[in-house]
Amino acid sequence: MPDHTKKVTPAIFALAALSFLLPFVVVSCGSQAVTLTGLDLATGTTVQQPGGQRVSAEPTATLALVAAGLGCALGFVGVPALVRTVMGGFGALMLVLLKNSLDQQARGTVATVNYAFGYWFALLLLAGGAVFNGYLAVQKETSGSKAASLATTPHLAGPPGPTPATLCHHCGAPTAETAKFCAGCGKPLLAGADAGQSHP
């Protein structure tokens, strides 16, 4: 992998992990609204509202954050791109499942859930990390199979060229080394050392 692409993977996953510090969801109930960051959803928090209601951690948010952190770490240690692809895809899937879970929890209540920039940014980065590393994995596989086929395929030298010419000892015409008769005079050629002699 070229040096500039080695830095891209950790950067994508680091940004995805940092986006958990941004607002992920805004839960509105009547005139009150609570904004929760991705970290709040991943670790659980106490809402600073009258009564201080505890919001428990969402396992899918926790797993998505772990996937982002692992993707960043794995980008530095040089594990195969396919592993990082799985990390990005898994993290993106967990965020989709988080949205599904929060939407289902809000159904049948007066609360509404709106997804903020941090959620969409994290989802985009994790999915982008999966696609980018998938591309790198395919490129490596393609270049590896090309190199392997070049190593195992005998190098073909094109059509055979003319064999070194000898001279007919009868007429002096150039003839192929493997020829038995002269193409110029039609007489039989001598085999062995005499075949290369020129006409006197």
How would you describe the overall organization of this protein?
The protein has 200 residues and is an alpha+beta fold. It folds into 2 domains: 138 residues, Butyryl-CoA Dehydrogenase, subunit A, domain 3; 37 residues. It is built from 5 helices and 7 strands, in the order αββαββααβαββ. The strands form 3 sheets. A 3-stranded antiparallel beta sheet has the order 2-1-5. A two-stranded antiparallel ribbon has the order 3-4. Strands 6-7 form a two-stranded antiparallel ribbon. Helix 1 packs antiparallel against helix 3, helix 1 runs antiparallel to helix 5 and helix 4 runs antiparallel to helix 5. The longest helix is centred in the C-terminal third of the chain and has 36 residues. It is rod-shaped, with a radius of gyration of 36 Å. The two termini are 66 Å apart.
Short description:
This protein is of the alpha+beta class and 200 residues long. The protein has helices at residues 3-18, 38-43, 59-77, 81-106, 117-152; strands at 23-29, 32-37, 45-46, 54-55, 112-115, 165-167, 174-176.
